[in-house]
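queue> pop job 88
queue> type: inverse folding (structure -> sequence)
queue> payload:
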């Protein structure tokens, strides 16, 4: 029906064109209103429907179950169990009687003030998870009096639980509340969410975390849940995190931790055939159970302030001079460059004279070959070989074995160690590098600092004759969405070094353990050809650091092992006996009384480099 407007005898509308314009304007306004109404009712329906729902419907996030972690045997060692949390909507919580809340929740006023202050810059109208791991005893009271507690809601999340013999503290890591900085970087998370803080929990966070679900619920005038909305038709289920299967052997890890008890240091065992890490220890450590769920400030401060620094991951981010364990690298370089052969000898008369300074050796070896120089840890041999090679060659072979670079182990916060380039050293000395630097590099001292994980990768490469593996903790991931396993392979690099030269080095390392005069003769075991090298690395801050790097069996190595004892003195006395016990355990070697060695007479003191 056409629109009729009575304009009467108004002289303003007497002119016909003016009348037509006015009518068309009225028509246009009507059309615009109609189109706007259609836009709001049809196109924007979803948006405004949701806004309308928020007046009586609350959208809740459903916490996913974090993925499990299994050891190499398939035993579940880390899982999640239910835990209660309290979320607050600050705007509504202003009306809440704080004393009642404190009595019902078991949260003291100081902790409440600290939490509110921490989240003062976050939205006052959104629920923020502020308190975790609440005792179920308090939950009953909170639920009973919920109508008197505006802005307070109870949630169910999960906290980590453990079923393992060993501690695996630095290896597994723990989860904790996400920081403000992390929230800005990771938009997926909200204030109060848990996230992996270190260890595997951190480096595999994206696999373990799962994905949050959504739950629509009807709420009363206090903003508290009273029923499910629309029979849950809009709800989205949470998806559990993926499971991790480690290369770590729980029982071997336990034995390694027992043997490192009371020491400061690190221990790493790698399968030289795959790069899989079988055991990784940083000593001392702390109890992961204390860091599961709500971490009391007193507990955290006790660990943080401990003088022995149990939070420090010595296996991957502490660096030490390698000392004599470096000598195999120098020997390989000399063999590859044609400077020495298997039968070449240098004369050792108890040291090396350079200018007016005498660099000593711990014994007089006479004319000594490379294999026997490794066996005796003869400094003089490696002083002379280092001088023949020159600093640039030694540094380049160190680069080849990955020193000064991260190994890429699947753990966070790995250190590169300290390994200067030849160019930076040459620049420092304006091209006139002093000869004593070549002597120091020849025996693994000077400006070389390596991490135990770097030394383990290096030792594994010696064991397998030249494949440098990227060490891996996780072997495979179980994808719960697809129901399939995904293997996690180690990166590898084949070193361009002759196998016959590796054979010479391996024979020298075999002599260290299995021949009279070897510096680790006390590590000998019947029926097992262990190849090793002791090291007593000078430490300007105290007693020398003790190393023992080794692998076994000689012909088809199954494990490569590095033991480091901070301020332990000699590698022969402090580190090698630990490795021996682990070889006994791994290969199930039982020693009869008549096969026992007299360690006190079998040892040859190695030089304090």
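queue> result:
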């Amino acid at each position: 029906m056409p629109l009729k407007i009575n304009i009467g005898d108004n002289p303003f509308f007497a002119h016909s064109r003016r009348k037509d314009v006015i009518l068309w304007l009225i028509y246009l306004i009507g059309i615009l209103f109609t189109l706007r109404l259609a836009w709001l009712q049809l196109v924007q329906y979803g948006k405004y429907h949701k806004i309308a729902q928020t007046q009586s419907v609350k959208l809740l996030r459903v916490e996913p179950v974090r993925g499990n972690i299994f050891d190499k045997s398939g035993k579940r060692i880390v899982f999640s169990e239910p835990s209660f949390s309290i979320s607050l909507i600050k705007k509504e919580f202003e009306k809440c009687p704080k004393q009642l809340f404190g009595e019902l929740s078991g949260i003291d006023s100081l902790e409440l003030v600290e939490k509110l202050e921490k989240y003062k810059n976050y939205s006052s109208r959104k629920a923020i998870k502020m308190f975790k791991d609440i005792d179920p005893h308090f939950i009953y009271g909170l639920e009973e009096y919920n109508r008197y507690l505006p802005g307070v809601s109870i949630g169910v999340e999960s906290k980590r639980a453990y079923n393992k013999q060993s501690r695996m503290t630095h290896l597994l890591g723990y989860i904790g509340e996400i920081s403000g900085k992390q929230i800005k970087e990771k938009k997926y998370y909200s204030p109060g969410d848990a996230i992996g803080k270190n260890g595997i929990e951190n480096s595999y966070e994206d696999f373990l975390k799962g994905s949050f679900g959504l739950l629509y619920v009807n709420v009363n005038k206090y903003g508290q849940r009273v029923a499910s909305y629309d029979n849950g038709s809009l709800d989205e289920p949470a998806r559990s995190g993926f499971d991790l299967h480690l290369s770590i052997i729980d029982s071997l890890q336990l034995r390694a931790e027992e043997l490192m008890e009371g020491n400061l240091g690190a221990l790493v065992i790698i399968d030289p055939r795959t790069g899989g890490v079988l055991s990784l220890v940083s000593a001392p450590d702390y109890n992961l159970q204390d860091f599961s769920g709500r971490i009391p400030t007193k507990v955290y401060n006790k660990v943080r302030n401990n003088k022995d620094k149990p939070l420090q991951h010595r296996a991957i981010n502490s660096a030490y001079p390698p000392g004599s364990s470096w000598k195999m690298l120098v020997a390989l370089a000399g063999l590859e460059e044609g400077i020495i052969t298997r039968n070449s000898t240098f004369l050792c008369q108890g040291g090396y004279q350079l200018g007016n300074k005498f660099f000593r050796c711990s014994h007089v070896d006479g004319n000594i070959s490379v294999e026997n120089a490794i066996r005796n840890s003869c400094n003089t041999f490696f002083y002379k070989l280092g001088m023949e090679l020159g600093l640039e060659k030694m540094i380049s072979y160190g680069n080849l074995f990955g020193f000064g670079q991260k190994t890429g182990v699947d753990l966070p916060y790995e250190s590169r160690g300290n390994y200067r380039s030849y160019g930076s050293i040459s620049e420092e000395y304006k091209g006139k590098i002093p000869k004593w630097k070549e002597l120091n590099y020849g025996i693994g001292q000077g400006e070389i600092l390596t991490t135990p994980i770097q030394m383990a990768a290096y030792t594994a490469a010696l064991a397998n004759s030249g494949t440098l593996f990227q060490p891996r903790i996780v072997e495979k991931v179980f994808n719960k969405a697809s129901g399939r396993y995904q293997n996690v392979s180690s990166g590898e690099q084949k070193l361009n070094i002759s196998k016959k030269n590796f054979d010479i080095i391996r024979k020298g390392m075999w002599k260290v353990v299995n021949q009279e005069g070897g510096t680790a003769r006390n590590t000998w075991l019947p029926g097992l050809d262990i190849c090793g090298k002791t090291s007593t690395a000078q430490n300007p801050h105290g007693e020398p650091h003790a190393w023992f790097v080794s692998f076994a069996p000689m012909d088809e190595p199954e494990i490569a092992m590095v033991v480091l004892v901070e301020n332990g003195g000699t590698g022969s006395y402090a580190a090698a006996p630990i490795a021996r016990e682990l070889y006994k355990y791994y290969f199930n070697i039982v020693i009869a009384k008549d096969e026992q060695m007299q360690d006190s007479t079998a040892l040859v003191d190695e030089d304090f480099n």
